[in-house]
Amino acid sequence: MSIELRIGRCYRAKKPRPAGQFTSYANDRQIVRIGVDTVQYDGPSVHAGRHYPTISKEKFIEWASHDVTDELPPGEWQQWPIKKGAAQ
To answer: Residue 69 has what DSSP assignment?
Structure first.
């Protein structure tokens, strides 16, 4: 199974973990830019004022389980722990 990567979409890890500075969120990643071989992303694990991390598309696809954009409230991250019935 391959995931279609799209700018502005949020993806959940195969093994979600808590992330965030002051409150806990799932370590989801939202794609900011897609290059020829790289993906640049934002997420709760990216601290305020830092550059967006860049990784290879291959590593991002290995990390990602599925797209959760439509399951999240607009402009918000998934709270941790993830409740049953929420975006899994």
So the answer is: G
The total number of structural domains that make up the chain: 1
Give residue 70's pLDDT. Answer: 95
62 vs 60: CA distance, rounded Å:
5
Look up the pTM and report it.
0.90
What is the four-CA torsion angle of 34, 78, 71, 66, rounded to 10 degrees?
50
Separation between Cα atoms, residue 77 and residue 51, nearest integer Å: 19
The DSSP call for residue 86 is S
Judge whether 28 lies within some domain. yes
**Beta pairing partners, 13:** 64
Q: By C-alpha distance, which of 72, 85, 59, 60 is closest to 25?
A: 72
